[in-house]
UniProtKB/TrEMBL annotation:
EC number: 2.6.1.42
Keywords: Amino-acid biosynthesis, Aminotransferase, Branched-chain amino acid biosynthesis, Transferase
Upper taxonomic lineage: Bacteria, Pseudomonadati, Pseudomonadota, Alphaproteobacteria, Hyphomicrobiales
Described function: Acts on leucine, isoleucine and valine.
Native organism: Mesorhizobium salmacidum
UniProt-recorded name of the protein: Probable branched-chain-amino-acid aminotransferase
Length: 286
């Protein structure tokens, strides 16, 4: 992979930050990840909107504008030589030359990198569906500031993952402050019931893949509601799937000890998965 830092393109192994960077010390950072498929970015503008929106709300300043960031990301991909890549852009608070604790004094840092694309779910998992456990852990900040700021805070999600492993599952879903289903480590969730979709609305990252599912559903005429999803509802669903940039649409066929419906990947999930990958060849979606 290739990284961009301090105005230079570097091999990944040389891309390093200071331990004094507030991004590292306080998770005072925002980032976004976008993927490149067969040489083309997928929904780059939506990822840039979310990234630049986060930077503005965190009151960070970048010496690069949207066009320059786009060209840096494209150069990272081109220099990496990968046709399909996972590209990350990061802005951290940085640190102050005088070690001041006033965040206004810090010099914000931008970095980016492109590494080979590897889906978080392998083919076997995509064919049989994931086994997910519901953890009692509650997803808290950065929602309290603004859920649309994509931040590295994952202590709750990592705790959820360990709970899931203890229950013999592959990954986790954690709860919102009202005890409803929120999201998982790096993904949003959807349930299908009687042909309609529902996804949690509150206290979750507004995922770009989640948004893409809304767009796909609008095209095929499926109804989607963004509203609370209870633990009972997810277990009684006809189909369940999770969504992320790094994995696309990934079916879930088992929650805790129980199968979802007959335990096979459902027809609406399959249809959306196919449609999602078809859109990668459509320049209008790049
Ligand atoms: N929720 C969380 C907490 C995430 O970290 C991510 C992806 N990094 C998502 C949801 C999915 O978002 P997207 O579809 O934009 O990748």
């Amino acid at each position: 992979g290739v990284a961009f830092m301090d105005g230079q393109y570097l091999p990944m192994s040389e891309a390093k930050i200071s331990v004094l960077d507030w991004g590292f010390l306080h998770s005072d950072a925002t980032y976004d990840t976008v993927h490149v498929w067969n040489g083309r970015f997928f929904r780059l503008n939506l990822h840039l909107d979310r990234f630049l929106g986060g930077i503005e709300r965190l009151r960070m300043n970048l010496p690069y504008d949207r066009e320059e960031i786009t060209s840096i990301l494209k150069s990272c991909v081109a220099l990496s030589g990968h046709k399909s890549a996972y590209v990350e852009m990061i802005c951290t608070r940085g640190s102050s030359p005088t070690f001041s604790r006033d965040p206004r004094q810090a010099e914000n840092r931008f970095m980016a990198f492109a590494v080979p694309f590897g889906s978080v779910a392998n083919n076997e998992q995509l064919e049989r569906g994931l086994h997910v456990a519901i953890s009692e852990t509650v997803r808290i900040p950065p929602k309290s500031i603004d859920p649309s700021i994509k931040n590295y805070h994952w202590l709750d999600l990592v705790k959820g993952l360990f709970d899931a492993y203890d229950m013999g599952a592959e990954t986790a879903l954690i709860l919102d402050t009202d005890g409803h289903i929120a999201e998982g480590p790096g993904f949003n969730v959807f349930i299908v019931r009687d042909g309609s979709l529902t996804t949690p609305a509150f206290g979750v990252l507004p995922g770009i893949t989640r948004r893409t599912v809304f767009d796909l559903c609008a095209e095929i005429g499926l109804s989607v509601a963004a509203t609370d999803v209870s633990r009972a509802e997810i277990k009684q669903a006809d189909e369940v799937f999770v969504t992320s940039t790094a994995g696309g649409i990934m079916p879930v066929t088992r929650i805790d000890e129980a199968k979802i419906a007959n335990g096979k990947v459902g027809p609406i999930t399959s249809r959306l998965m196919n449609f999602y990958w078809q859109k990668h060849d459509d320049p209008a979606w790049s």
